[in-house]
Sequence to fold (472 residues):
Amino acid sequence: MSLNSLSFRARRTGRLCGTGLVGRLHPALRRLPNVACPAIRLLVLITIVTGFISTGSAEVLKIRIDDTINPITDEYIGRAIQSAEQNKDSALVIELSTPGGLADSTRDIITKITTSTVPVIVYVAPSGSRAASAGFFILESADVAAMAPGTNTGAAHPVMLGGGKMDDVMKQKVENDSAALMRSVAGKRGRNVAVAESAVRESKSFTDQEALSQKLIEVVAPSQQDLFQQLEKKPIKRFDGSTVTLHLVAQNERTFEMSLREHILAYLMDPNISFILLAIGALALYAEFNHPGAVLPGVVGIIFILLASFALNLLPTRYAALALIVAAFILFALEAKFVTHGVLTVGGIVALTLGALMLVDGPIPEMRVHLYTALAVSVPLGLITAFLMSIALRARRNKVVTGAQGLVGEMGVARTPLAPEGKVFVHGELWNAISSIPVGVGEMIVVRRIDGLLLEVEPVAARQRPEVGATV
Fold:
């Protein structure tokens, strides 16, 4: 019911409202009749105050994506959209700079953007940034696609995981699937479908001005303020066919940050970091196995391997590469056992390097382990592991020199006659001893065996005596 209608009905009573606090809040309230004051004035007051509050609380939510597109990126964008919807924000701005990423994560992000009740603006910025491959799909799915001067987008042709060559049938299937997704997204947004599809089928890339002139984006803006100015009072067609007019110039901006968990996982999602953690964890466990009871290497090894496993579980990982890494450590261990003059160590380094390079099956170079990372880890790790293993095996082969067993082979002096029992002085201590050969006081003896606290000895002369039948 309109305010004029309420005023007309109440005017028939001939009793008008006073000019109190409610009347001073809004001029129209002065015309309300007294009979309507108890209910209608309160209702109108609540409506006006609610309008002021909702207008003042409207904000623009902003996030920054400056990494590859992966499951953590998908989770981050999803949480941002939920936050914008809960706070009834005017728009969500995604400042984007990415070389691309995983197709599954990209599709999930597109679904979240196209079903968002809050308009989503994807802005490729700052200058020098790019929205390549998966980034181009995300850009085209936005309610408003914008780029800063000096940026580029496109090159969205699907690539086989690992960068290998696909057979013709599979290549055609993947290409047609990606092209169909691009046609449906660009068509719904009213953008140039043919040009957008060429970025998928022909790997075409576009500068900001080329994208603008070919109707792949709506705005080229050097700054976010200029972007909002160009969008002010401009009707935007949403994915569901509705139209909305954006008023963002006077809105407050709220930055939505990643959670601590997302920050950690985003860092671990770097395949180079995952491989380094895996290698250090394996080396730490090896140290624990060779020094039981040290505890610290075992704890560090387990934690590092679990962190690497969690990250690799989210990445496209090749299990054959993990087998190569395990085989590399086996070769390092065998090098210490069988003297091959470094052949097994070299083989282990080669296996570890190949395992690292094939560990993550990423569609773009940024999502694979780099060659210099693989070499920087594999070579030192191979040399250190082989060295430590050789030390451990050498120590196990050496004679025991500590404890009771360390007395075997030690020489001493008879302090009393041994016929057959008596006292001997060995290693700075006085021991009970027994000898099958009589030993006089002061004679040198050698320990042959230890039985509890009793030493079995024999005189040094008897030890040096030639066997029967032997020649001197």
About this structure: The chain has four domains: 3-55, 58-258, 270-397, 404-464. The first strand starts at residue 59 and ends at 65. DSSP finds 17 helices and 16 strands in the chain.
